[in-house]
TrEMBL record:
Keywords: NAD, NADP, Nucleotide-binding, Oxidoreductase, Translocase. Residues 148-312 form the Alanine dehydrogenase/pyridine nucleotide transhydrogenase NAD(H)-binding domain. The gene is pntA_1. It catalyses: NAD(+) + NADPH + H(+)(in) = NADH + NADP(+) + H(+)(out). Its EC number is 7.1.1.1. This is proton-translocating NAD(P)(+) transhydrogenase. GO terms for cellular component: plasma membrane. Pfam families: AlaDh_PNT_C, AlaDh_PNT_N. Gene3D superfamilies: NAD(P)-binding Rossmann-like Domain. Signal peptide: none annotated.
Length: 377
């Protein structure tokens, strides 16, 4: 089975979908690996390292795509590139399938099986393949680093002959994978951390990290069968905003990570709340790229409102591309390895197991994922 790795071409993208280590493991399974020249440039892996690990280095991208039985990449492909894949090819990457309808149609027209890394089920067994989690974990860590770099004070308490500095107060909204890592990182740096999430089950996890959980009575709450937050009604959002107002005004750092799967994130920090913070305070909006939890935040930009710095984040794990690549590559390997048939040395598209039906979007010329099928006309 010929498995191709195209270089990531999105501007500024430093991550890759493989490391020499995963090339070695895939080769050991019996896959014939072809890696486009320059694939590891942004994450610190050379073509020579990939070649030593067992891959052929290819400079003709189109030729490589045209003969691949399987393509492993990070970013979604351009639509024009889908037309270069051969019928029956299995393509694995992020796809943004809720929004990229034309891309999904292109996969069906080309007869390519498209697997979406965003749609890997959030189950215990699939954790090792879960790229949303692996990248969100790193992003949560970096969000705290960015806040600390902007804040005109330190995070820990410091007792010195020159006086005592109080610990900084950090408030984290949303305690999923990124939020929990942000809590853990801020705690490690000595901050006083409070957090809130609409899923009550999270309170215990927040407290086990040594942070305080802010109690807000939003009435009927809970989570979906997949463990995601349910969307709040406009009335519940308003209750949440009012209940957070005081703690936001009193915080040195606010980090927002609130997302509702497949929906626009809620605006939870309004302009007047930003204006209520002390000048010099910092907000990091980790939802900025998908619409923002903070009024006035801009993706990939840092803006100032009344002396308060608002960092709108984009692709945060890209800032630690080496580790992010290592984790993403490992997610990819585990996905391939899970249904690999040792005898025929093929990836088996088992559409009856507990993982693939959740993340295979197109197959055999049709959209087969039930949710995506419903939204694509
Ligand atoms: P996410 O990125 O979809 O959302 C981030 C957080 O925002 C979530 O915790 C969500 O509850 C919260 N949120 C939404 N609206 C909010 C609001 N108005 N105010 C405050 N917080 C709000 O979440 P995620 O990090 O991808 O995790 C989603 C779920 O999947 C979690 O339950 C997580 O524990 C679970 N998960 C399970 C596994 C596994 O079992 N393998 C792996 C990863 C994640």
């Amino acid at each position: 089975m010929l498995v191709a790795i195209p270089r990531e071409t999105h501007p500024g993208e430093n991550r890759a979908s493989v490391t020499p280590e995963t090339i070695k493991k895939l080769t050991r399974l019996g896959a014939e690996m072809v890696v486009e020249a320059g694939t590891g440039a942004g994450s610190g892996f050379s073509d020579e390292e990939f070649a030593e690990a067992g891959a052929t280095i290819e400079t003709d991208r189109d030729a490589m795509l045209g003969k691949a039985d399987m393509v492993l990449r990070l970013r979604k492909p351009d639509i024009e590139e889908v037309a270069k894949l051969k019928r029956g090819c299995i393509h694995v990457s992020y796809l943004d399938p809720f929004n990229e309808h034309d891309l999904i149609r292109a996969f069906t027209e080309q007869g390519v099986t498209a697997i979406s890394m965003e749609m890997i089920p959030r189950s215990t067994r699939s954790q090792k393949m879960d790229a949303l989690s692996s990248q969100a974990n790193l992003a949560g860590y970096i969000a705290v680093m960015l806040a600390a770099a902007q804040l005109p004070r330190i995070l820990p308490m410091m007792m010195t002959p020159a006086g005592t500095l109080k610990p900084a107060k950090v408030f984290i909204i949303g305690a999923g994978v990124a939020g929990l890592q942000a809590i853990a990182t801020a705690k490690r740096l000595g901050a006083r951390v409070t957090a809130f999430d609409t899923r009550p089950v999270v309170a215990e996890q927040v407290e086990s990290l040594g942070a305080k959980f802010l109690e807000i009575d939003l009435g009927e709450m809970g989570q979906t069968a997949d463990g995601y937050a349910k969307e709040l009604t406009p009335e519940q959002v308003e209750i949440q905003r009012q209940a957070q107002k005081e703690i936001i005004a009193d915080s040195d750092v606010v980090i927002t990570t609130a997302q509702v799967f497949g929906r626009k994130p809620p605006v939870l920090v309004t302009r007047d709340m930003v204006e209520g913070m002390t000048p010099g305070s910092v907000i990091v909006d980790m939802a900025a790229e998908t619409g923002g939890n903070v009024e006035g935040s801009q993706p990939n930009e840092t803006v100032e409102v009344n002396g308060v710095t608002i960092v709108g984040t984009g692709n945060l794990s890209n800032l630690v591309a080496r580790d992010a690549t290592q984790m993403y590559a490992s997610n990819m390997f585990n996905l391939v390895d899970d249904t690999w048939d040792e005898e025929s040395k093929q990836f088996v598209l088992n559409l009856e197991n507990d993982i693939l039906p959740g993340c295979v979007i197109t197959h055999d010329g049709a959209v087969i994922h039930p949710t995506i099928k419903d939204i694509i006309d």
